[in-house]
Amino acid sequence: MKNELNLRCVMSKDTVLATETEQAVYALINIKSRSGALLGTMPANFALVLDRSGSMDGEKMENVKEAVGYVVDHLSDADLVSVTIFDDQVETLIPNRAARNREAIKAAIANVIPRGGTQISDGLKAGLAEVMKGYAKNRVNRILLLTDGQTWDDEDACLKLAEEAGKQGIAITSIGIGNEWNEKLLLQLAERSHGNSHWIQNPIAILDAFQQEMEGMQAVAATNLKITARMSAGVKPFKVHSTIPMIADVTHKVVSNGSIVADLGSLDGKKGQALLIEARIPAQKAGRFRLGQVEATYDIPSQGVKGQSVKTDLFITFTEDAAAATKVNAEVMNLVEKISAFKLQTRALTEAEAGNIAAATQKLQSAATVLLNLGEDDLAAAAEREILSLRKTGALTAAGTKKLEYGTRKLTQGLTQAMK
Amino acid sequence: MKCKACQTENIEGALFCEECGVKLEAMAMESEGEGATLVLASTDGNRLEIPAKDEIVVGREDPISDIFPDVDLTGLGGMEKGVSRKHAVIHRAGADYTVEDLGSTNGTYINKKKIQPHAPQTIKAGDELRFGKLALTLQAA
């Protein structure tokens, strides 16, 4: 029963040069379920919150209906589902209930006609209320939010709801269709609730996204996952990024009093989760030095496992021998490089928003170079196109911004098929 | 440590410049663990490197369906030997490897034994992996 999860920690360098000053080291913390471990499937408690505003007409609504049909067909009788539709009003099409009588659910959604504006917070609030009706710790409690437009003046309300959801372990996966919606908001909703986010350009890919979410829900291996890193005296956590499933800077959320406490929500058994810590270590004389201890705690409700813990210590060796201190771990190096692309892209967008065109251009250029080094030609080209857009119009394009925001965050997702 | 490209002062040990993202140190790259890097070797001496990723898709490239597996067996006669486009995935966790058949048409075999789809099985250097009719040996790099 013990050690259902595999906690793997890798340092950027096992050996560093003994210097008089402090230096930076990186530690990758990776959690996955053990190969072949059968941890059972948890029943789902799934709320669909769907934009039915006027712009969702034609192909978009057709594909949404098909995707909902898919979800309903692939939930089991033990799963709970609800469907909420919103424009500037909210309608609960299907209140939280067992996923039986699938034809009735499909019939209800078949009659939806796009109309109205967009007020996401009301839809999200209603969806959250439905999830709470069926809420249980041994269920995968999740909200899937789909929109194609800007919400009207209620972004703060949305973010608060996401925080609330996250605290309960209810992950919100946000899906944005087309280019006319706020990617910062949708990404924040996902980050705050430990959910996922997808950018879809072609309505045909809506089904794909729903399929991915279903697979993700069925792959949940553990819940209430927390990573704690207690650092030895003098070792300062400088930056922490989550890397799997998406890259995000979580420093402000997880670092306090020199240690790291990260709430990661539920664990996808196949994909796992990972954090990359950049720490500053104090000057040391030659010898082995314990950097700290990493502990992962988790629950596996289907097996009655609660608060299980797995720990590992982080060590580093200081040496006077410069030649021995040059080896860098390739896996960690690759991750730090991807995070670098993400950071440069984020800064470029901030500079562009502030009207600092020259600074934005510089950062985009740097991002393009790093992306090319990573073999991400497509994203590098997107960065270059945004440089041209800045030159022409002084602003970035809506599509380009989304491509860069989503593309750099998902640099660590190898297998995921690109959403078209 | 000064960045050669933009002259920004970076902390000792930093891998990439904070300001411009350029790689800082001249370093020796190392793969994790001993013998952790594996290659797939064919009977006629071809060696296919397994990329340093956690999930490595093995299959046959098909640009029309936008399928680009990490290890592409087209050049080794994958088409004729019944390799599916997304045939199997090799999972890596540190120095441990497993292979999972992705529901391929002609199956995946470890040392001549067929494995169940979607049930990852441990593999190690010396094992023979067969994708459809295409047999490869897992070897340490």
Q: Keywords, please?
A:
heterodimer; A: 420 residues; alpha/beta; six-stranded mixed sheet; 11 helices; 18 strands; 33% strand; globular; disordered C terminus; B: 141 residues; mainly beta; six-stranded antiparallel sheet; five-stranded mixed sheet; 12 strands; 0% helix; 36% strand
Give a verbal description of the structure:
The complex is a heterodimer of chains A (420) and B (141). By secondary structure, chain A is of the alpha/beta class. Chain A is built from 11 helices and 18 strands. In chain A, the strands form 3 sheets. A 6-stranded mixed β-sheet of chain A has the order 2-17-16-10-14-13. Chain A has a 6-stranded mixed β-sheet with strand order 6-5-4-7-8-9, sandwiched between helices. In chain A, strands 1-3-15-11-12 form a 5-stranded antiparallel β-sheet. In chain A, helix 8 runs antiparallel to helix 11. By secondary structure, chain B is mainly beta. A 6-stranded antiparallel β-sheet of chain B has the order 3-2-12-11-8-9, with no helix packed on it. The chains are: A alpha/beta (420), B mainly beta (141). Strand 18 of chain A pairs parallel with strand 1 of chain B.
